[in-house]
Amino acid sequence: MIDPVLYANHNSLQTRDARYVVDHYFHRLKWRSRENILDVGTGDGQVLFEIALPRVPSDFQKLVAVDIDEDMLSHARSRCKNYSNVELLQLDIATKNLPGRLRANFDHVLSFYCLQLVKEQRKAFENLFELLKPGGEILLTVISNHLVFDVYEKLSTLKRWQPFMANFGDVGPYNRSVDAVQEVEGTLQDVGFVEYKCELINAHHINDFDEFWLWASAVNPFIKKISKEEMGQYKEDYMNEVRKHRRVTIKMKNGKEDTIRVDYQFLVVFATKP
Ligand SMILES: C[S@@+](CC[C@H](N)C(=O)[O-])C[C@H]1O[C@@H](n2cnc3c(N)ncnc32)[C@H](O)[C@@H]1O
């Protein structure tokens, strides 16, 4: 699970990419009047309440924001005090028991940088389908590949971190995909979506070293298991794997590591329920 305060303070990549998606893709959606909207994996709520919500039609009837993590939702709750038509709910998007009252209830389902943390992709897409009203649409932003997933895997091979990182494969479902677009589009088709499209976006982020570690810590779902005493060693081993990674470029200044650039790709997924 992710620390909501750390996440809220070190999410510049996520907020930048969310702005990109809102700017470039929201106009492609067929917005209706009196919409019911669902946001999946709301996290601390910044992306939803500060970036996405100001750009959805203001006459929306209801907004439901869900997250698997109650700590994240408590943080998000403090951002939605001004809205009477917003509900925050704890929900695993890959649940086998989707609450009946949520089924076929939404005109749009949005999700920013959540689905790459979900192991059961097929179940998650089935649930997204179930949640929509006929004619409803999904718009998802999903990390396709990023060095963090490779680093988790590398750390899982070190005896010291193996017990904490053994589940590295639960995240980054498309990190090793030969063709993530085809894979996602195949799932969309199998689940019953129509007019689907998945686009792969090349991106990069540049941070100074300290900020990179804070960002990486904030998105690391395994880090809470590492004790304070072991954190220094964990950071050293983590950053050593980062330095070796093929998608990393490090710039030096005065003989010291100054900035780090990471190239990665994300998916933007649209689909309609017939
Ligand atoms: C990287 S954060 C993204 C938060 C926010 N959407 C943003 O763009 O900043 C991912 C969020 O997805 C949530 N999450 C992870 N797995 C989930 C699942 N199976 N169902 C619902 N939420 C999940 C996490 O708890 C976390 O809050």
Give a short overview:
With 274 residues, this protein is an alpha/beta fold. The chain contains 10 helices and 8 strands.
Globular, elongated, flat, extended or rod-shaped: what is the shape?
Answer: globular
Structural class call reads alpha/beta
Bound molecules: S-adenosylmethionine
Q: Give the name of the CATH architecture.
A: 3-Layer(aba) Sandwich
Number of domains: 1
Parts with pLDDT < 50 across at least 5 consecutive residues = none
What is CATH's topology name? Rossmann fold
Helix fraction? 25-40%
Total number of beta strands: 8
Q: Radius of gyration in whole Å, from Cα?
A: 19 Å
Mind telling me the CATH superfamily name?
A: Vaccinia Virus protein VP39
Q: How much of the residues is beta strand, in percent?
A: 25-35%
What's the overall average pLDDT, rounded?
96
CATH class: Alpha Beta
Largest sheet: 8 strands, mixed
SSE blueprint:
Blueprint: H1 4-9, H2 12-25, E1 36-40, H3 46-52, E2 62-67, H4 70-77, E3 86-90, E4 106-112, H5 121-131, E5 132-145, H6 147-156, H7 162-165, H8 180-191, E6 194-208, H9 209-219, H10 228-244, E7 248-253, E8 256-272
Parallel strand pairs: 1-2, 1-4, 2-3, 4-5
Antiparallel strand pairs: 5-8, 6-8, 7-8
Bound molecules: S-adenosylmethionine.
S-adenosylmethionine (SAM) binds next to helix 2 and strand 2.
